[in-house]
Amino acid sequence: MTRVFSGIKPTGSVHLGNLLGALRNWVAMQDEADTVYCVVDLHALTVPHDPEELRAATLSLTQLLVASGLDPERCTLFVQGHVREHAECAWVMECTAAFGELRRMTQFKDKSESNDFVSGGLFTYPALQAADILLYDTDQVPVGEDQRQHIELTRDIAMRFNSRYGETFVVPEAIIPPTGARVMDLQHPENKMSKSDDGAQGTILLLDDPAAIEKKFKRAVTDSGNEVCYDPVDKPGVSNLLSILGAATGRSPEAAADGLERYGDLKAATAEAVVELLRPVQARYHELAADPAETSRLLEIGADKAREVAAATFDRVRSNLGLLGR
Ligand code: ATP
Ligand code: LTN
Predict the structure, then answer these.
(1) Eight-state DSSP code of residue 175
(2) For the CA of 192, the nearest atom of ligand 1
(3) What is the pLDDT of residues 92-122, one digit of tens each?
């Protein structure tokens, strides 16, 4: 069976782009593959953080993932910091990656320019990501376009390790959704909807209440003209709303335009569809949030399943590297 692995950072708030571009895909893959999903708390340490906020964010992200449809019975859902092999294997990855390869990573270049304190971990972050993926004999990694370079590096590290020390790792491939799966900011439709964006008015959070959602859609930037039609080049704002409406109601953006005459109608229809899409997710989230002990229990089961696979892979790594057995 195909093994699928992906990770999400417990930083910022989960938004509609995360749900439509990534999480829905993760949920669908549960029925087709052996899926492993990880809340990557160690990756959150690369930039300065508040410990209480990290703890709360890790729990709440886990609850949102389950509320969105990840089923701990059908997938392995765990927190990275619970499985020691991730940090241990990351060191091996750092020693297998070339300094020049890490220096070429564009995410490091972007993030190191916008942060006052640049940690060594921010630089070696892709090596930890490679460890995450390779520890699970992963075939496929569903990620957004921004992660393509990290998966390429993971492949290069796996192939280099295998040729130096013998067959050890499965070489994974990235699964990147088509560009239509990119949800854009409601205020700046030329940028993707993002958690790190200050312009909160353009971002629909999964936990926004119906009134907030309606207000954000009402204020969404549209384009000149008044015809509701899908044309991402000339009508980026309207097209983004049609993509969201289509994705939320299981139709293509073109089909979603049917019967909508005015921009106001499009905004109202999109807001309503998103409110309905999020209603069950929010209800389930609030149930789970009321019982944190249950979330911890689910995470313990996930960690046990993950540890079993990661430990077997890492034993192979140790042995092939020439580290003494214990
Ligand atoms: P940041 O805004 O801080 O870069 P993010 O919102 O991109 O964070 P991540 O944790 O980096 O969130 O990504 C989680 C997943 O959601 C990734 O697979 C990413 O590709 C996907 N994703 C993020 N934003 C969007 C978007 N606007 N449209 C579609 N998919 C998205
Ligand atoms: N770097 C990714 C999060 C991430 C990840 C992973 C994704 C960490 N480890 C392993 C896929 C596989 C991000 O910033 N979205």
Answers:
(1) E
(2) 27
(3) 999 999 999 999 999 998 889 888 899 999 9
Low-confidence winner among 137-146, 151-160, 270-279 (lowest mean pLDDT): 137-146
Is 9 within the bounds of a domain? yes
Q: What is the extent of the structural domain holding 273?
A: 210-287
Would you say 46 and 119 are in contact if contact means Cβ atoms under 8 Å apart? yes
Distance, CA of 255 to CA of 205 (rounded, Å): 25
User: How many angstroms separate the alpha carbon of residue 36 from the centre of ligand 2?
Assistant: 12
Q: pLDDT of 225-278, one tens digit each?
A: 999 999 999 999 999 999 999 999 999 999 999 999 999 999 999 999 999 999
Q: pTM of the predicted model, to two decimals?
A: 0.93
Total residue count of the chain as it appears in this document: 326
Catalytic residue at 111? yes
Q: Is the CB of 202 under 6 A from ligand 2?
A: no
Contact partners, residue 141, CB within 8 Å, separation at least 6: 4, 5, 6, 133, 147, 151, 154, 172, 173, 174, 175
Task: Indicate the number of domains in the chain.
Answer: 2
- CATH number assigned to the domain comprising residue 244: 1.10.240.10
Q: How far is CA 249 from CA 25, 82, 270, 275, in A?
A: 15, 37, 9, 11
Same domain, 144 and 24: yes
Whether residues 222 and 118 share a domain: the answer is no
Are both 283 and 306 inside the same structural domain? Answer: no
Burial 243-270 (b: 16+ CB within 10 A, else e): bbbbbbbeeebeebbeebeebeebbebb
- Ligand in nearest proximity to the CA of 11: 1
